Amino acid sequence: TVGAVALDKQGNLAAGTSTGGMTAKRWGRIGDAPIIGAGTFADNTSCAVSATGHGEYFIRYQVAADICARVKYQGKTIEQAGNEVINGVLNADAGEGGVIILDSKGNISMPFNSEGMYRASIDKNGKVSVQIYR
Amino acid sequence: NDIAIAIHGGAGTITRQSMTAEQEAAYRAKLEEAVKAGYARLQQGASSLEAVQTAINVMEDSELFNAGKGAVFTWDEIHELDASIMDGRTRAAGSVAGVTQIKNPINAARAVMEQSVHVMLSGSGADAFAREQGLDMVDNSYFDTPRRREALRKAKAKMIKNDHASLWQQHRDYKMG
Description:
Distance between the termini of chain A: 18 Å
Shape of chain B: globular
Largest interface: A-B, 71 and 83 residues
Oligomer: heterodimer
Order of helices and strands of chain B: EHHEEHEHH
Radius of gyration of chain A: 14 Å
Number of helices of chain A: 3
Distance between the termini of chain B: 77 Å
Largest sheet of chain B: 3 strands, mixed
Shape of chain A: globular
Order of helices and strands of chain A: EEEEHHHEEEE
Helix content of chain B: 40-55%
Number of strands of chain A: 8
Strand content of chain A: 25-35%
Structural class of chain B: alpha+beta
Helix content of chain A: 10-25%
């Protein structure tokens, strides 16, 4: 699965996710990637999220929307909200994966509970980061 | 206003031991290419939607990631792709699921969002919609890669072995009649 979140000069957020699903899937199985609120979510008043991981868990816990809801209604930072959902809610049920999160101030957070996650970012100061492992 | 972008290329059992130096370098280079392509669009004044689409297109066109070219195989040895996109300004959204002929599924998701009254289209209908929209269409074999075919072979072998093991467990007293 691949995904991206971005903040433009007009202050607008967007999120997108694209995937080939899981190896050897059958019966028209669909994961979280095309499910708005599960694998992808964006709202200028909170944040933009794209997810990757075990889709069945991300669907049931509405991971992307849950993170943004915690930011919007509980006033949490994207780092707090992402950590709570990925390392708390998701981890408690053995759901594995991660998310990239961006808020309307240009803050970036990329929490995951798996061994690694391919990820990269360019922050509001122009700093480039490319990471794979913990 | 500030601009920023973040991307991911999948998560899982990714360790230093599981990758050669060459493989790691290839992943790092492609991630950097993708994030810089999206960022360049933002610098030019493009929308966040454009930046997201641009960055994802780079990864969809790479064999390294499980999306677009390089997508994994289904049990029936084809590829079924999914994608979605959402605009934070309006909360407009579009997605496609189980498509088999769209070269860049994220482009189809955006077309659903902007050119239809729907949010999600699936299967052959979504492929037909993308074709009508003039998106790049490909034969399903375009997504094939030797690496993913080998992954399917291993997965099937493991699943069949596990099936046999569970059946054997259920019928371990078969000889008793």
